[in-house]
Amino acid sequence: MRPTHIRDLLAIAVAVGALVYALLWWSYQSLPQLPATASVSVLLVGLIELQTASLTRRRLAGRPGTRPILPLTVARLAALAKATSVVAAVLAGGWTALLAYTAPRTDEFGTAGGDALAAGLGLGATVVLLAGGLVLERVCRIRDH
């Protein structure tokens, strides 16, 4: 498995963002308003991954008070981290498109202001998720000795 590259994540985010923006342009008026708490679960998963990265780093280093970690567990965490990065790129594209569509239209649509707020919060939560995925993947890399 090769490391995640930022350019790949950017390409995913741009492609999804363009698609979501087109869908919003076509059907925004028929969609219900998003709750401001829509991104809480994304934030929690990102924070959990950051905590997992910290614990994994300590276990791999053999710090006192930690148990050794199985190599298969590290491989599974690396796969989870890679998948999380891709999901975060998809979410970033979607939230950015929603923010770009709704922010200039707050006077035009009654729900646009609330949706812009939800998109901004979602984008912030997605940054935490992306950081969690990338940090966890970096911790799980095999080091050359």
TrEMBL record:
It comes from the Bacteria. The chain crosses the membrane at residues 9-28, 34-56, 77-104, 116-136. Keywords: Membrane, Transmembrane, Transmembrane helix. This is DUF3180 domain-containing protein. It comes from Parafrankia soli.
